Amino acid sequence: MSKTRLSKSARRDERTAYLLILPFVLAFAVFKLYPMLYGILVSFWKRNSLRTRASTDFAGLENYITAVKTSTVWTSFLHSIIFSVIYVVLVMILGFIIAVLFNKKFKGRTAVRTMFYMPYVTNMIAVGIVFKYMLNPTHGPVNALWRVFGSTGPQWFNSPMLALPTATVIAVWAALAFVIITILAALQDVPEELFEVAEIEGAGRMQRIRYVILPMIAPTLFMLLTICIINSFRNYTTIVALTNGGPGTASRVLSLQIYEDAFTYSKYGVASAEGVLFAAFIIAVNAIVSKVRSRCLERL
Amino acid sequence: MPGKTIEKKNIGHQVFTVVMWAVGILMVMPFVMMVVISFRTQGEAYDPIFAPFTPILRNYEQVLGHVNFLDWYGNTFKTVIITILIRLAVTLPASYAFSRIQFRGSRLIMAVLMATLMVPGETTMVPRYLYFSNIHLLDSIWVIILPEISEVFYLMLMSEFFRSIPEDLSEAAKIDGLGHLKILLTIFIPLSGPAIATTVLFSFINIWNNFLDPYLFISSIDHQLITPALRFFQGRGGADVPVQLAGASVATIPIIILFIFTQKYFVAGVSSSGIKG
Questions:
Q1: What Å distances lie between residue A57 and A45, A48, A214, A261, A267, CA to CA?
Q2: Is A37 contained in some domain?
Q3: Of the candidates A133, A220, A255, which has its C-beta nearest B274's C-beta?
Q4: CATH code of residue A262
Q5: Beta carbons of A186 and B275 less than 8 Å apart
Q6: Number of domains in chain A
């Protein structure tokens, strides 16, 4: 085959490839990528009232300055961080433990697995309705445990201290399946012989986890960590369904602040600036995680 | 002596089995409560879960009898079906190109696509709202469908699946003179049943459960989808607890039944997204 013919067919292949990806890429550019970039534009425009909703007057850094000078932005950011930390720690640790346990055979394992996976396919609004019923402090079935001892028990969503952690734990309950399924799949790729060798060498259960399982599935765990961190900031629905940011502003996370600034006060410019900063923060956290990942995986 | 250790191991294993079942039942307790209480009167709502009662259908009559109930279910099904069809039509060819053809810019395009996965919809709700308002997309199911058709997750899922199809198959077809489109249509798509099933299942669950987008972009009550519509049974002046729980059941049970029968594809989808994503 001559060189020119090869490159000719390669060029034809290339043209076909562009045609094949065109619909996807076009839809992506118009409905996904452009709105993201548009957010950066809006964050530099003077659009902070209903009247100036379509304004394209350049505002400089005004919106960003307003955003970082607003104290509720910082408290809601702090709430987002608290939510995220509790969520990531719990979902990763519990998911890992449960996956390791599910890797052992027992009677009815498939049925029990289904039970653990069910919350994952349930919508958060329905979850909110059920948990608000269950955690009703005066009549609810959960606080019945406390009523037996004559106490009223925790106030859950009515308590400024407990509202946010309670909502986070429910988010963990709903998301656990994702971590369990992913780790289980990774565990199934760990060669059986490794466990046998470890057993012959007299490794205990903890040692087996530390020296056999963890190094083998470390790449999966880091991948999960990244995804869980991103998901921990996708919490608007969870918070709206469970606490709506309350009591007062005790569980108001950054996404609620953005929503309110934009759709209650029509401060589209400021809200967009908050969105840009929020996205930049999430990307920065992930950059750090990927640094840590490459360093950790090198060492293994 | 060895007999004794085996016995000990057995007891340990039985305890383990019981504990796993107990925790599993605890995990699904909210669903049990949801369904049980949805058949009670308001007065019985907070009676102990195992207390005897006469089941009533009044709560379901109230939910299903809502003037807009059929609209919400209909809109949701319409959105799900149209999204799945366009999504497959767009994603299958793109996945084929990314996994089987070498072309300039493929890495760059893929990198841009993947990077956007890091940006949660929460951070871009304002510009999306303004933009969709500018292009007159608000308040129709198309404001949900159009952004959904190019989800990178499904592109990765499908590309990963296509990469697992043996190279020889497409090479043989090429020698026979088949073009890429023919190869995609006659070889790849017929082989990708499992990946298509996973896509359909995930699309169904995700769009059905989506709250943020329809809540933000759809304002008319009769254009709303089922999950955000659940809010109409809640809050000030909303219905009583058993009616709310009946609403929650109606919005949840179809998905759970679908999930129980298709778990295999569901698990395959989650694990491939986690490991290779």
A1: 5, 11, 54, 19, 14
A2: no
A3: A220
A4: 1.10.3720.10
A5: yes
A6: 1
Mean pLDDT of chain B: 89
Residue A145 CB contacts under 8 Å (≥ 6 apart), including other chains: A153
Interface with chain A: mutation pick from B96, B122, B151, highest number of A CBs within 10 Å:
B122
pLDDT at B78 (0 to 100): 96
DSSP 3-state percent helix, strand, coil across chain A (nearest 5): 75, 0, 25
Per DSSP, what are the bridge partners of residue A58?
A45
Quote the domain boundaries for residue A246.
72-299
* Domain B60-276 = CATH 3.20.20.70: no
Any domain includes A9: no
What are the domain boundaries of chain B? 2-57, 60-276
- What one-letter code names the amino acid at B186? T
SS3 content of chain B, % helix, strand, coil (to 5): 75, 0, 25
What is the DSSP secondary structure assignment for residue B179, as one 8-state letter? -
ipTM summary value = 0.91
- Tell me how far the alpha carbon of residue A37 is from its chain's centroid: 22
* Nearest by Cα to B250 from B48, B62, B26, B67: B62
The pair of three-digit structure tokens given for residue A245, joined into one six-digit string: 């940011």
Token digits of residue A63: 């919106």
In a domain, A192, yes or no: yes
8 Å CB contact of B270 and A178 = yes
Q: Which of B102, B106, B126 sits opposite A275 (nearest CB)?
A: B126
Residue B68, judged by CB atoms within 10 A of its CB (0-12, 13-18, 19+), counts as middle
- Please state the rounded mean pLDDT for residues A247-256: 95
* pLDDT tens, residue by residue, A195-224: 777 777 777 778 878 888 888 899 899 999
Which residues of B are less than 8 Å from A258 in CB distance? 122-123, 125-126
